[in-house]
Design a protein that fits this description.
The protein is an alpha+beta fold. It has two domains: 131 residues, S16 Ribosomal Protein, Chain: A (2-Layer Sandwich); 54 residues. It is built from five helices and five strands; from the N terminus they run E-E-E-E-H-E-H-H-H-H. A five-stranded mixed beta sheet has the order 4-3-2-1-5. A hairpin with a 2-residue loop joins strand 1 and strand 2. The longest helix is centred in the last third of the chain and has 65 residues. The protein is elongated, with a radius of gyration of 47 Å. The termini are far apart.
Length: 210
């Protein structure tokens, strides 16, 4: 009888939860199974996996074929690592006690890493909750000495540029005013000459009439 290690879907819509089961390869996906060896919840961060490693290893040695997802889970939980160590025992490279010690050390390190990730995720969620609720205050950015010096130099440069621009504008205004005065003077001179000419011709006309 062909046997497979696969997932059996539980949970509800858009919130899946899986059982890791040993089942006949010919049975339906969520049908009868031989043995349940663990659970898998992909909705948490990181995903929550509970599995009987010894039972999974035992079924692997008996020839059960895991699906791709279950195979990845077994690698993640160290079942395939134990299978690798047992090959070394069969070849005489190590004893069973040494293999068990190495396997347990690997499991402890893996579980510690998972616990650290879970704690980090919980801390991030708590920090986000406080920020959204207004409990957490935004920290003020403290500038270092180099930043302060750069800001001071920028302010001084800005002041110098503003003063130079103001001086240039004032000079331009003065030049425009001088040119305008000269234009007014030039425009007034022909008017004066025309007025004096008209005044001189008037007595001449009076003399002719007499």
């Amino acid at each position: 009888m062909p046997v497979k290690l696969r997932l059996s879907r539980k949970g509800r819509k858009k919130a899946p939860f899986y059982h890791i089961v040993v089942a006949d390869a010919r049975s339906p996906r969520d049908g009868k199974f031989i043995e349940k060896i663990g659970t898998y919840n992909p909705m948490t961060k990181p995903a929550t996996i509970e599995i009987d490693r010894n039972a999974a290893y035992d079924w692997l040695t008996k020839g059960a074929q895991p699906t791709d997802t279950v195979k990845a889970i077994l690698r993640f939980k160290g079942v395939y690592y134990r299978k690798h160590l047992m090959r070394g025992v069969k070849k005489g490279a190590m004893t069973v006690e040494q293999a068990d010690t190495m396997w347990q050390t690997w499991i402890d390190a893996k579980e510690a890493s998972i616990a650290a990730r879970r704690a980090n995720t919980m801390a991030e969620l708590e920090s986000f909750r406080k920020m959204v609720s207004g409990e957490a205050k935004v920290k003020a950015v403290v500038a270092d000495a180099a930043t302060k010096e750069a800001a001071q130099a920028f302010m001084e440069t800005s002041d110098e540029v503003s003063a130079a621009a103001e001086e240039v504008v004032n000079d331009a205004v003065e030049e425009v005013a001088v040119v305008a005065d000269e234009v007014v003077e030039v425009a007034e001179e022909p008017t004066s000459e025309t007025t004096s000419g008209e005044t001189t011709e008037a007595p001449a006309e009076e003399a002719t009439e007499e």
